[in-house]
Design goal:
41% of the residues lie in helices and 15% in strands. It has twelve helices and seven strands. With 260 residues, it is α/β, with parallel strands linked by helices.
Length: 260
């Protein structure tokens, strides 16, 4: 089973949007997918207008079984475990838990029937993010076109290296560094892409052209839809389709002309 964590220590870089589209895109291709929100802000539920009786908070505390926390069929072949602001206090409440960094792996040990698990993460190297990275076997790092997002990505990679050192038996690999909010006409984007390309740790994993700026992504979220549901001919739909192609088949197709 592929387990893909979407992580960047900087907020506002499109983590939730990328996690949702990664999960929905793979499900649309026929995979059975579980999307897990490990950010206490609960943005997956907000973006898709979902409600859950039990959340990741209760699952990690042992107050709910996975079957109780899973929201089934939010899209065809796509289920979800949602988050809630109560998860902000999990670090304190799990302080006495043995090996608390791997509690998610233990709670989900009996869950099967999925081809892929996609994990949305918190913009901090906290207990929930450690649990995501210790459960995952692949990582996608979305990076906005600004210096702080690049710094956040570098901090993320340092965190991944720390996990590899502390838990060498965990096969955690970087799948892609994904540029987001790309506008090739701006100096900021060009400078950011040059920096990412030259970075010895991120450059080899950089997936270009990334996800271009597209207002339809905002409208899709406002309508609780994916970009393919809201504006299937938009540049964001094309870019996320290209991203799914890469994740599914390991290729990165060329640009296409689109409207947005």
């Amino acid at each position: 089973m592929r387990k893909i964590a979407v992580v960047n220590m900087k907020g506002g870089v499109g983590k939730t949007t990328t996690a949702i589209h990664l999960a929905a895109g793979l499900a649309a291709r026929g995979a059975r997918v579980l999307l897990i929100d490990l950010d206490p802000q609960g943005n997956v539920a907000h973006a898709l207008h979902l409600r859950a009786g039990r959340t990741i908070d209760e699952l990690l505390m042992g107050l709910a079984e996975p079957a109780d926390a899973i929201v089934p069929r939010i899209r065809d072949r796509l289920d979800a475990i949602l988050s809630h602001p109560s998860a902000f206090s999990l670090e304190r409440r799990l302080a006495g838990e043995t090996q608390r960094e791997t509690i998610l792996s233990r709670r989900l040990r009996g869950v099967n029937g999925y081809d892929v698990v996609v994990l949305d993460s918190s913009p901090a190297m906290n207990l929930l993010t450690y649990n995501a990275l210790l459960f995952a076997n692949q990582v996608v790092v979305p990076v906005g076109m600004d210096l702080m997002a690049i710094i956040g990505a570098r901090q993320t990679l340092k965190g991944i290296e720390e996990i590899r050192d502390l838990w060498p038996e965990r096969g955690l690999k970087i799948l892609a560094v994904l540029p987001t909010f790309v506008n090739a006409a701006t100096n900021a984007t060009r400078a950011a892409l040059e920096t990412l390309t030259a970075d010895p740790h991120m450059g080899p994993f950089l997936l270009q052209p990334g996800i271009r700026q597209c207002i339809d992504l905002n409208y899709a979220t406002a309508n609780h839809q994916t970009i393919w549901e809201y504006a299937p001919r938009s540049r964001a739909a094309v870019d996320y389709t290209r991203f799914i192609d890469f994740v599914e088949k390991g290729r990165n197709d060329g640009r296409q002309e689109t409207t947005c």
